[in-house]
Design goal:
Number of strands: 32
Number of helices: 28
Largest sheet: 8 strands, mixed, barrel
Radius of gyration: 46 Å
Number of domains: 4
Shape: flat
Structural class: alpha+beta
Oligomer: single chain
CATH superfamily of the largest domain: PAS domain
Strand order of the largest sheet: 23-24-26-27-28-29-30-31
Helix content: 40-55%
CATH topology of the largest domain: Beta-Lactamase
Amino acid sequence: MHCNTLQGKFCSVAMFSKEQIFLMKPPSNRIFFLWLVACALLINGLAAYSFCRGAADFKKSATENAERETRNLVRAISQSVNGLMLKVENSLLLVSSALEYQLSRNGKIEPSEIRALIERQRKLHGDTEPWFVADATGKLIFCEGKVRPRVVDVAGSDYFEKLKSHPDKPFVFAVSALGQNPGVPAVLAVRRYRNSDGSFAGVVAAPMAGAFFKKALTGFKVGQDALLSIRTSGNALLASYPQGARAPDAFSDSYLKFWRSREKSATYMDLTEQHVHRLYSVSRLSEFPLIVKAGFAEAAYLKDWRSVLKFRMFSLLIIVVFSFVAVSAIAYMWLRQSRYLASLNSTNERLHALLGIGGVALCSVDFLSGRWEMSPEQKLLFGVGDDYPQTKEGWLALVYPDDLLPLERAVKRSLYLAASRFEYEYRIVRPCDGQVRWIQVSGANDYLATGEPWRFLGAIKDISSLRESQRRAAHLVHHDELTGLPNRSLLVDRMRQSLAQKRRDDALLGVCLIDIDGFKEVNDKFGRSVGDKALTEIAMRISQSLRAGDTVARLGGDEFVVLLGGFSQEEDLLEVLRRILDVLGNQYRLGESNLALTASAGVTVFPRDDADGAEALIRHANQALFEAKRLGKNRIHVFDPEADKRIVEQRNRYQRIAEALENGEFRLHYQPIVDLHSDAVVAVEALIRWQHPEEGLLSPAQFLPFVENTDLTIPMGEWVMREALRQKRLWDGAGLSLSVCVNISPRHLQQADFSRRLYSILQEFPEQSPEELDLEILETTLLDDLSEVSRSIKECSSFGVKFSLDDFGTGFSSLSYFRRLPAHVVKIDQSFVKGILTSADDLSLVNSVVSMAQAMQRKVVAEGVETIEHGLPLIRFGCDYAQGYGIARPMPGENILAWTEAWRRPAQWLVTEG
């Protein structure tokens, strides 16, 4: 071999020893230069310290001034609020005294006198809400103003009970939503008035909302960036400055800490939603349930400080620049004097450092003589002494056996091609300790004029750590760092191979996702180090429980995937997995900690689950794991592909229905409801249809089951109500007055804000009378929450909407339920009406329902009147109304007008009526 591992003849400039280099001293004024630099740094440091200290003191003073201003402003606003509230309290005292005087004189209250007195007193206070007077039962007997009050009974309020139960407290302040605008917070000043015998007679109250408290914020000279606000003790905003300000820190941690505490006042700094630093002062009024807050933007009260800061920074910059310019000038003169010697020293230092840094050495090989010259660095790298033979044979003896032949080939190829550059990496075995090291040879070949190889000059570098890092990185690409198990990428690759094999041999492959139950608590209780030891132990237990050919991988955290193959029956696969879970359930001894863990597993089995690829199978196993966790943990759950397909189909159908609602693909058809005892058409029932672009007109049974109890229930129900009211407006314009019945789903009806949203929809059709909207609710709905349903019905009935009890007879409602429900119409389910001609039980049931409704003064609608004959017994029973295919099928809204004009009762009904 003609190439060796590098070292040898060095050029003369590289032959200086380290001792020779340091004999060449620079001029002695170098010390003076260092002192000069130190003085410049000291001066600059003192200037910087003075600048920072002065700026900090200035900023602290400005901040303290701002804090005083905010506290003074809060005190001034509090005093203004106190004055306003005391005036209201005095006015209420006059009103209550007048009430007590009337009761003692006449034994009753004269509304005209009280109204005049309240109006005079209210005018004294400007923007208070309408005052009201309640009697001893809490019922409002007088409310100043023409607007109908939202609350007519205050008996359940805290302030009413407090004044009634505590004779020693004639006056209280309370926070309430009572006011002209529902939901707007107000502060109520409430005073008790008494009968002539001293007993409790009722209360008189003056609600004060935001407009009243805005007066307390006016008249103060503050900047445009200041924020002032008054809030209730419940943190509801009453008034703010400037108008419409949101007091952005109302829910910040600092404010909420004060609000929840019992502190009277506080000052704090907050960062608002608009990223504005603002200084706030807050104070809780001692006698009133109010909180006053004032805030100044940091940019405003630090404006002068920033101006001074800029000037000082500029001054400091001038000092720094001047000092370093002076030092640079002196340094330049010194450098000119020592440039030559410094250049020579730098060259020798770099060459010497190259020989000792990172196992790098210069080398030389003479191809003609076979002589290999080693430097001290190469001897240290190769682990040989001074007596080691520096020959071709000595070099080859150090090469790792497996790398010897490839190295010789590389050298020969380089010389054969007369290449000027040569680079190669191979291993050596150090004789001193037997270590194997990776080295990199880099250098150039020199040739004689005849083209014969002469010598190689280059460098040798120890790259063992680099090679180890590369090996470890390559390992980590496919393995978990903590447990050494395959990671997700290697798992997916092995799954692809297993899937291909199982398709050929028709065997089962189980993809099992195992998760340790409650493992987060292990980390939280014992620490991450114990958790890592537990994961390592878990990985070892799973690995030892597997058969040859099975695979376990760690996805991350405490999730492991096990591939179990070679089974012909699913039960055999599950038995292996049960054994694994049993092993994982044994106690863990980790240092001084004893852990008792359980595991849950989700399994999907191929080819029963013929998912599209490895990732899909892992995802299905994860779904099964989620189900195992949901069912109580410490169990195995097998993925059901058919159930998953149904879920996907249902999800797709749900999404398509949502798109149909957005695209306006739904239609309403209307089925008439007629009077059995006259020719009148009293109402129509709105029935939804889907005009599908591909499937045509679909009935409710084909799409409503997909949206029951979902988020689409409410928007679809509100669309039906709006569309029905829109169609009714067209009928009214054509001279046809009909009530419209709309079915309301249980989920929609039981929404807390159902009545408010219904009222908002009715406001979109101001020309429509709410009494002509009839909402039909299923009897079975009421069993879920009768009190909540009754409350919603009463609220809607208060503004005119009517309700019907639909499908009566199909549920299990008791007579007491029927009596308590404020529904004015009962609709007998069509399943009973259809059977009255053939079933004596159905006939008796229908008769009983009609009799019961008549006794309770409710109207009855019989659904499912399929033929003329079905109407005959209904007429005899005294049933009021009927609907069904025997009368008319559901039809588009534009057909209703012509149908109603042509409708006449059948002759058979007239005979029965007679």
